[in-house]
Write a structure and sequence with these properties.
Helices cover 42% and strands 18% of the residues. The chain has 3 helices and 3 strands; from the N terminus they run H-H-E-H-E-E.
Length: 106
């Protein structure tokens, strides 16, 4: 597998989003789903915490977290060092500490 540089990733994202049948939202959903599938294929875990930055990579992390949430006993997302989403199966989820909520359309 060849690892792309930051510039190469940006270029490939630009080329993909320039296609009429592709949007940045679809790219984000596909990348997040692929990240979750990679984790499931290569790791065994009981809990998961996804750390998300700002921008599109943060959205991709949110998609990955949403995909992994039903499969982990405990799951969470950190965004800008603040909990964005936390869940403990068997107990009611803790309320988000962010001004937004996220629901994947996958």
């Amino acid at each position: 597998m060849r690892i792309l540089t930051t510039d190469e990733v940006r270029q490939s994202e630009r080329e993909a989003s320039d296609r009429r049948d592709m949007s940045t939202l679809v790219l984000m959903q596909r990348a997040g789903s692929a990240a979750a599938q990679f984790c499931l294929a290569h790791f065994t875990f009981d809990s998961v915490c996804v750390v998300c930055g700002r921008g599109n990579n943060g959205g991709t992390g949110m998609v990955a977290a949403e995909s992994l949430r039903p499969l982990a006993a405990k799951s969470g997302v950190l965004g800008d060092s603040k909990p964005v989403f936390q869940s403990n199966h068997g107990r009611p989820p803790k309320p988000p500490r962010a001004a937004f909520s996220f629901r994947s359309t996958l």
